[in-house]
Each structure stands twice: as structure tokens, then as C-alpha cells.
Amino acid sequence: MAVLNEHGDRARPLAGGTDLLVKARANVWELDAVVDVKNIPELMNLTVGKNGLSIGAGVPCYQVYENSEVADEYPGIIDGTSIIGGIQIQSRAGLGGNLCNAAPSGDGIPALIAHSAVARIAGPSGTREVAVEEFCTGPSRTVLQLGELLVSIEVPKPATNSGAAYTRFIPRNEMDIAVAGVGVYVVLDDSGNNFESARIALASVGPTPILATEAGDILAGKPVNDETIGSAASLARDAASPITDMRGTIEQRKHLIEVLTGRMIKQAVERARG
Amino acid sequence: MTKSSPSKVHVTTTINGQEHELLVPPYMSLLDTLRELIGLTGTKEGCLDGNCGACTVSVDGRIVDSCLVLGPEVDGKTVDTVEGMATTDGLHPLQQAFLEEAALQCGICTPGFLVAAKGLLDNEPSPSEGRIRHWLAGNLCRCTGYDKIVRAVQKASS
């Protein structure tokens, strides 16, 4: 931390390096120092506990998706983690770096938001917690202040009768950046026929990953059917504020959000019903 | 250089079964460490940003893009490159299969494909075609169209 503090913007923590080394090489970041944080045990810890899942900020993707307990309890997080880059990237890159890189398209982030995950940050005056949906403040920008370090991501234990899912649209089969992505977490009642609550998060359709609050809230107390799912998907479309770029147009992206939201709600419901 | 940036980092690492002690500039990639400090030029530089997989090596049994690893990070670790695949008895089965199936043209991507495919077959001796294609998605080849590479990996699997 002393080195990071001394050099300010010209020093960065190194976890997987798959974004950092690319940016440093391209002179997007001009650096005097990088600090390898993989020797800090707390940052490399992955625990599935009674109260939830704790993912150290330096834990690489493969350790998350190869963990059978995580796969059983948090399949929506696995959906995102297992499609970040290729196998080589997944050996190094992790969800902590995905969050700190703060790309609107980060595939690891929407499921974390949908799960109400919290970022645990260490700083000069102790630790603080920030909801993942508030962590990114713009492309490549986060709430992290000088002298602060992301320590872990804390995911609450999923409720009974809950399910989650994430998917993205890309024109290739693998190794691409999301044109649009949707993560969903739903809680059903004991009958499995009604929503108790839902959270829906969107990727690549705004300057940050987006929590589509109204789209999730409208499902609360409603029966599981095409009409209610369609109304949530429509609100998710309204919450998307994408740009047109080389990957897709505004209209295509909004359409994708509506389609993918419907699909992911249905998949989350299937998982909730077991 | 500041006090936090030593001019060289002392690194002890096992490469293809042989221990090496190196003094590595702090920001030298593992790719350059292998090629320039040790003379292992089998590992190729492609895109330098983690898209093409030409520089794939294995670190502690996991395949990585060596352009996105710093040399000092492999201190205490085991690195395996394409040069470690053949033995005095002959080519590795994957190398033999790549030859027989003509799974290469220009050859720049080949070391990366071989190391990546070995990383798969070492843990999953009989992967499906879909699994092979998924596993090799981080390796790009602009010559073969991939079919011959996939066939070669299938041939080398048991």
C-alpha cells in the first residue's frame, strides 16, 4: 500500500494483469510501479460459507467456475465468469479485476449486481463496503480513492427458491465483447408460481453496468407468466441507454436487452424451481 | 527508477524441468523472459494483448498468455513451453498428429496451439470436438481454418 500511495495514479495493483499489462503497454496508463497483490492471502481467498460467497479480489476466474459449491449455489455467477476471455485469460483474470477495470461490458459484473453483491474496500481509515452497482462510475472509473484497494466481493447467500442467470449477445461463439448482456436473480414463493422479488442488471448499454431497478421490482408479487416477464423485459429495454458503435446500434442493443431479459428471467425461474 | 522499482528482480523458476536463476527487469514479460533471457524462441509473439494465444505457455499446469504475465511473477513456479514437449524418444503425440494432419501452414500459431492442446489433454484425455473448439478459442490461426487443428487434437486424444 505504501508503494501504491507514494505513486498515486502512476502505480496500480497487479492481479491477473490481463487488463493492466495491456493498458500499460499501450500507454493508456503511464506507470512507475505495479504491485503484485497475489501474495496477500485475503485477496486470494475463495470461501463458500453459511452467509454467502466471498471472492478475493485476486482470485482468477477458473477457481470460481471449477469450484463445485460455487457452481451449485451461484450458477448465474458461473455463467459470467466462464465466458470472460478464453482459457488462457481465465487462468489469470478474475472478478475483482473485471470490476476494477469498470468496462460497461464486463461479463462478470451483472450477475454480481443481480445477487446484491458488495465490494469490500480497504483504505487508510479501515474498510468500507460499496454495492457492486455503485462501484463503477464510468468507463474505467470506479469509486476507489487514492490509497484504497478492492479486497473482496461478498455475495449474500441466495434465498430459498431463488435462481440466477447471465448471458450476453456476441456475433462470435467465444472470445468477444458483449454487444449486450443481462444478469437476473429471482426469488419465487413456495409454490414456485409467483415472483417474490427480482433484480435485473444490464451490460454494454450505458457508461457502467446498470441495475434496472424498475424492471426487477415490477415482478414482485406477480405470477410467473409470459405477460409479467414481458413487462419486466420491456422495462429493462427502457433502462438501457446504449450508444451506437462498431459492435452494435442503439436500436439493436435495446432490442437485445428486451429479448435477453425475457430469456434470463425464464432461465433463472427454471433454476429456482430446481 | 524509484526505490520501489529495482532494476532487476531475482527469479528462480523451473522451465521445462530445468531450474533457472535469472535477473529479470521488473516489467519484462514472461514471453520476453523466455525468448530473450533464456533463448527459448519457440514461444511466439502475436498480438501482445491476450487475443491470439500465440505466446501460450503453461505456468504451474495452467495455460496462460505469456505476454500478459511479468517475468518476476513466475518466481517459484514451474513453466512449460513448446520446447519441453518432444523427448529424446521423439515428438509428443500432439506434434506428430499436427504433422500427419497438416494442421499448420505458416506455423506462427502452432507452438501456442500445441501447448494449449496439451493443457487440455493432460487433464481430459478424450474431449469432445465441441470441448476442443471451446478450449482452443483463445488461440487464433489465420491459415488453416481450424478444422485440421481440431482433427489433429482429436487424433492425439485417446
TrEMBL record, chain B:
InterPro entries on file: 2Fe-2S-bd (IPR002888), 2Fe-2S-bd_dom_sf (IPR036884), 2Fe-2S_ferredoxin-like_sf (IPR036010), 2Fe-2S_ferredoxin-type (IPR001041), 2Fe2S_fd_BS (IPR006058), Beta-grasp_dom_sf (IPR012675), Diverse_Oxidoreductases (IPR051452)
CDD domains: fer2
Keyword Metal-binding: yes
Keywords: 2Fe-2S, Iron, Iron-sulfur, Metal-binding, Oxidoreductase
Gene3D superfamilies named in the record: 3.10.20.30, [2Fe-2S]-binding domain
Occurrences of domain 2Fe-2S ferredoxin-type (ranges): 9-85
GO MF, one example: oxidoreductase activity
Protein name: 2Fe-2S ferredoxin-type domain-containing protein
